[in-house]
Amino acid sequence: MTVETAEIDDAELIRRSVGDPEQFATLFDRYARQIHLYAARRIGTQAADDIVAETFLAAFRRRDSYDMSFPLARPWLYGIATTLVARHRRQEERMLRALARTGVDPLPEPIADAVVRRVAARDKERELAGALASLSRGDRDVLLLVAWEGLGYEEVARALGIPPGTVRSRLHRARKKARAVLGDEEL
Q1: How far apart are CA 146 and CA 123, in angstroms?
Q2: Start and end of every RNA polymerase sigma factor 70 region 4 type domain (predicted)?
Q3: Cβ-based neighbour number of residue 56 at 10 Å
Q4: What is the spatial distance between Cα 98 and Cα 102, in angstroms, rounded to a whole number?
Q5: Are 84 and 51 a contacting pair, CB within 8 Å?
Q6: Do the domains 119-186 and 8-104 match in fold?
Q7: Burial readout 15-49 (b: 16 or more C-beta within 10 A, e: otherwise)
Q8: Which CATH architecture fits 8-104?
């Protein structure tokens, strides 16, 4: 990413990329890592590589229909990725059930971080994975976009194409179910 493109908002980059496709590469540089981490948490590292590629290919193909009134493309990209993850839903559900049974997270992380985190949270992680697996697809999508990716209600609504009130109710329902499973009032 050049200094020149670092100052330009996403909508302008997308607009420019219609005439100069190379401009779209800056969006990839800005968001590919975030989209990959999100997808890896949902369906595993191997499938996440495909999701990232498919997300940016779909976005590139649809760039001429992007709503330029939104300066940030992040929610749009998460919406595309979430739709693609839905195609891999069965694999995600199997992974969460396996994590609930075994407590072994398929997403690798540095050894020192893994040891400290696992000692502190092994039982809760199994319970949480079980709770995530039991959520409806819509509730799980909202919860993970908020909790893992830090999107706000409006961004999640835009990413999933649902009203903000639906985001709030789905998040409330997901938190309530997680509290019931984990017995934790702080969720």
Answers
A1: 23
A2: 126-177
A3: 20
A4: 6
A5: yes
A6: no
A7: bbbeeeeebbbbbbebbbebbbbbbbbbbbeebbe
A8: Orthogonal Bundle (1.10)
Asked if 182 contacts 131 with a C-beta cutoff of 8 angstroms, the reply is yes
Alpha helical stretches, state H, the chain: 3-6, 10-19, 25-43, 45-61, 74-87, 89-102, 111-134, 137-147, 153-160, 164-182
- The structure tokens listed for 64 are 């001429």
Report the phi/psi class of residue 161: left, alpha or beta, with left for phi > 0 and alpha for psi in -120 to 50: left
pLDDT for position 4: 63
Chain mean position to CA 132: 14
Averaged over successive runs of 10 residues, the pLDDT of the chain (187 residues) comes to 71 95 94 95 87 96 94 96 86 76 65 54 72 88 91 93 94 88 63
The domain segmentation of the chain, as residue ranges, is 8-104, 119-186
With contact defined as beta carbons under 8 Å apart, do 74 and 155 qualify? yes
Domain 119-186 has CATH 1.10.10.10: yes
